[in-house]
Design a protein that fits this description.
This protein is of the alpha/beta class and about 280 residues long. The chain is built from eight helices and six strands; from the N terminus they run ααβββαβααβααβα. It has a six-stranded mixed sheet with strand order 2-1-3-4-6-5, with helices on both faces. Helix 3 (about 105-115) links the parallel strand 3 and strand 4 (about 115-130).
Length: about 280
């Protein structure tokens, strides 16, 4: 008998994510990454040369992609639910900015988006991934190992480019494309970086996070290690953010199809042999 699909283990407390994003919005958000993504998304959609009549913005923090007035913003609810409110084949376009990195069941969410798109509908999203915040992760790990004799989860695990491409294919998207925009931001110190993360609503929301306040000595040592390892000559530290872009289309007969194996009219071996004689 076929086994039912297993639910992946939850990594993120999405109810806490919702609360922190609301707090950040009320207190004044740090939006420089979101602004960069919104500008890039405008350019990418303009290059598609298509009119999208039914479009949704999925879980983009704050007020959503405010430069796109014709796109309905689907906000994260208080429980952080991952079941999408879309009818099958109801949308021409789904966009999402800096939200999918906090999804517990990303394959499931991508599959839901795929079902919600009409044939030849487009998903275009940007999420944090790759080596993002590697400096902070390393500094915290070294400080905790030195001061407390152990390491606790501080920075979320991020998917890499190959993972995302494979998930798009698994969800049934045609013509999947992924690329990375690496942004290096400089700060006076590690505490300024952590303040920006709080103002993004992106502080630690891991379910396995440490529940007791960090020791002052550990935090100070973390900042020292960060400055020792990742500071420029002027003393300012670097923080890496990898923005992974992903896009895919709901399959349609009009789309370009890959050739079937063995259907090529020219032999690669013959082409190489010919090139060697020239």
């Amino acid at each position: 008998m076929a086994q039912p699909p297993q639910t992946p283990p939850a990594l993120f407390d999405r109810a806490l994510l919702h609360a922190r994003q609301r707090r950040a919005h009320a207190q004044g958000e740090a939006t420089f990454l979101l602004d960069r993504v919104a500008e890039d998304m405008t350019d990418r959609l303009a290059a598609v040369m298509r009119e999208f009549r039914a479009a949704a913005d999925l879980w983009t923090p704050g007020a959503g992609l405010t430069g796109f007035p014709s796109i309905a913003h689907i906000a994260l609810d208080e429980a952080g639910a991952e079941k999408l409110p879309f009818a099958p084949e109801s949308l021409d376009l789904v966009v999402s900015a800096l939200a999918l990195q906090f999804v517990n069941d990303l394959p499931g969410v991508l599959a839901q988006i795929r079902r919600a798109l009409k044939p030849d509908g487009l998903l275009l999203a940007a999420m944090i991934g790759g080596d993002s915040l590697t400096e902070l992760r390393q500094a915290f790990a070294a400080a905790e190992a030195e001061c407390e004799g152990g390491v606790s989860p501080r920075v979320a695990p991020f998917a890499d480019l190959r993972d995302i491409g494979a998930l798009l294919q698994r969800a049934g998207f045609a013509l999947p494309v992924t690329d990375v925009d690496r942004v290096v931001v400089r700060y006076a110190n590690a505490f300024a970086l952590m303040q920006d993360l709080r103002r993004m609503g992106a502080a630690n929301v891991l379910i396995e996070r440490r529940r007791t306040p960090s020791r002052r000595a550990t935090l100070l040592r973390m900042a020292e290690i960060y400055a020792e390892r990742f500071a420029d000559s002027d003393g300012r530290i670097r923080a890496t953010f990898d923005i992974i872009w992903l896009s895919g289309w709901a399959p349609h007969a009009s789309q370009q199809q890959p050739l079937k194996p063995g259907s090529a009219k020219a032999s690669l071996a013959e082409a190489v042999k010919k090139a060697g004689k020239e």
